[in-house]
Each structure stands twice: as structure tokens, then as C-alpha cells.
Write a structure and sequence with these properties.
- The chain is α/β, with parallel strands linked by helices.
- Helix content is 35%, strand content 14%.
- It folds into two domains: 16-204 and 302-310, HUPs (Rossmann fold, 3-Layer(aba) Sandwich), CATH 3.40.50; 218-298, no CATH class.
- Helix 7 (203-213) runs antiparallel to helix 8 (276-285).
Length: 314
């Protein structure tokens, strides 16, 4: 078999894969985004510049139109984000004429509300404090996020409209029924909702949608050369924040990021995928979730997603 025929056979599954279900997912997400605008006084859309939040932003653009998104974008910056992502975040907000609010974990550290156990500690988990401070500052009553049920088992327990108490905490027993797409959005003073319009999407759905809608992403999502070390079953990028340790062998590998976040806890995977169609094929063959394959901070029970959610995390 020649190389051209072999390549055609590899592409066939992605080309044959139907995307008609995306119409229903898109319709549901747009309905939720409009419901938030109608039901709440001070909503905001959590926007990191990552693929899920860029899909969410595209859906908001479809729901309301360019320059007409009725709520600001909110980014909680650890100060350790990839510059490719934050630069892309700023570019998309400007293109859509959307108001972008950025609040930093470093500012919380200056106020003394965040204290690190050691200088090289990941700041990712401390975003909860800064987020709750931003909610208090702006009196947000609904925060729209790009979390999906398939990312992590704790997120599979979420409602689309996730109730948070006056301390910003997620309590399973306080979650509201969502039968027949009817949402109970009543709040007591100080409470708020986290809303997840793409909760029913999977990683594969996201990449099919990115391919169909030609959504531009930061370059980190596609194959590139990067120095890495192998550590505890993960590929750790070699950076100023995550240097190689004694005895570790630095390798230059073709990698991409399935998810992006704080540099200190986000790892790439081996990949030659250069387009969304390539990534659709890779995702079909993946047997580990994107967080399980790429997040160092999800490997320990102390940093479990459910505990973080109860502390006010996204």
C-alpha cells in the first residue's frame, strides 16, 4: 500500500464521522446562554483562552452577535499561564468587542489572602480564592464556564445550572432538579450559580465543532517541538517554572497540549496532529481523559476536583 492510500484510509473515519449531533448540542448551549442573560442580573463568562472557553465564546457570538455579548468575560490569572494562551485571550476579546476582566492570584498573594506553602508551589488550586474575591467585587450572580461532564468524575455530578452557597461552595445535596430543561434559578442573598452550557459535550464533540466552525486556537494545541522530561508517567515541559530535576533526561519531542492551564501542572502528549481533523482521529483512539493524561495536580487525592469544587473552584 502506498503512502497516499494509507493516509486516505486513516482519514476515512474522521470524514465519515457524522457531526449532525453537534446541531443539537449547539442549540442546547445557545439556549442556556440566552437563559442566563434573561434570568440573572450580573452574569459573567469565564474565559481563559483555552479551547473549551473559545468554543463557548463562539457559541455566545452565535447567540447574541459580535459586539453584543451581554456579559463581561472574566479571567482568573495565576501569573503562570502560557503567554500564547493569554495573548490569544486578549486578541479574541478585542475582536468580539467584549469587556475582559482579569484578576490575578498574585494580587491575592499581595493582599495576604493566598499564601503559598513554598515558592514553587502550583498556584492553580489557589484560583478559588481569587475567583471568590472577584465574585464579591462585582457581585456576579452567575458564572458561565466551559466544564464538561467527561473531563473528570466529579464534574459528571454537576448540573448545567450548578448552585453555589453564600461561601461559593458546591454542595451536592443543594443541587436543583433539571427535568424537561426547566432550570430553577432562584437565589438567596450572597448565593450564585456556575453555569455549564457545554456540560453534555465530550472532548471529541469539541474538536468536531472546532473543525466544523473553523475556530482559531492557540498554537499549543497543535504539534510542535518542545523540550520535555518524563516524570511519573507524564511528559513535563521544561520551563523556568518546571526545570528538569537531577537525573532526568531532557528530550525534544513532537507534542501538543490537550488542555492548557497553569504551566506548573499542565503537560503535553506525544502528537503529530497539526489540524483539528488530525486531532479528531487521535481523540477517537484515546483511552485516557484529557485531564488524566495531562494534569499533574489531578494525580493526588488532596487536590481532587471534588474537594476544590467544595472550596469554590470552577
Amino acid at each position: 500500500m502506498n503512502a497516499r492510500n494509507e493516509s486516505a484510509e486513516l482519514l476515512a473515519p474522521a470524514q465519515a464521522l457524522s457531526d449532525t449531533h453537534l446541531n443539537a448540542l449547539e442549540e442546547e448551549a445557545i439556549f442556556v446562554l440566552r437563559e442566563v442573560a434573561a434570568a440573572f442580573e450580573r452574569p459573567t463568562l469565564l474565559f481563559s483562552g483555552g479551547k473549551d472557553s473559545l468554543v463557548l465564546l463562539k457559541l455566545a457570538e452565535k447567540a447574541f452577535g459580535q459586539g453584543r455579548i451581554p456579559y463581561p468575560l472574566l479571567m482568573i490569572d495565576t501569573g503562570h499561564n502560557f503567554h500564547e494562551v493569554t495573548d490569544f485571550r486578549d486578541l479574541r476579546a478585542e475582536q468580539l468587542q467584549a469587556k475582559l476582566i482579569v484578576r490575578s492570584v498574585e494580587d491575592s498573594m499581595k493582599r495576604g489572602t493566598v499564601r503559598l506553602a513554598r515558592p514553587d508551589e502550583s498556584r492553580n488550586v489557589h484560583q478559588s480564592v481569587t475567583l471568590l474575591e472577584a465574585i464579591e467585587e462585582f457581585q456576579f450572580d452567575a458564572l458561565i464556564g466551559g466544564a464538561r461532564r467527561d473531563e473528570e468524575k466529579a464534574r459528571a455530578k454537576e448540573r448545567i445550572f450548578s448552585h453555589r452557597d453564600s461561601f461559593g461552595q458546591w454542595q451536592p445535596k443543594d443541587q436543583r432538579p433539571e427535568l424537561w430543561t426547566l432550570f430553577n434559578t432562584r437565589l438567596q442573598p450572597g448565593e450564585h450559580f456556575r453555569v455549564f452550557p457545554i456540560s453534555n459535550w465530550t472532548e471529541l464533540d469539541v474538536w468536531q465543532y472546532i473543525a466544523r466552525e473553523s475556530i482559531a486556537l492557540p498554537s499549543l494545541y497543535y504539534t510542535h517541538k518542545r523540550d520535555i522530561v518524563e516524570r511519573k508517567g507524564l511528559l513535563v515541559p521544561v520551563t523556568e517554572l518546571t526545570p528538569a530535576r537531577d537525573g532526568e533526561v531532557v528530550q525534544s519531542r513532537d507534542v501538543r497540549f490537550r488542555t492548557v492551564g497553569d504551566i506548573t501542572c499542565t503537560c503535553p502528549v506525544d502528537s503529530l496532529a497539526a489540524t483539528p481533523a488530525d486531532i479528531v482521529i487521535e481523540t477517537l483512539a484515546a483511552d485516557v481523559s484529557e485531564r488524566g493524561a495531562t494534569r499533574m495536580d489531578d494525580k493526588t487525592s488532596e487536590a481532587s476536583m471534588e474537594k476544590r469544587k467544595k472550596d469554590g473552584y470552577f
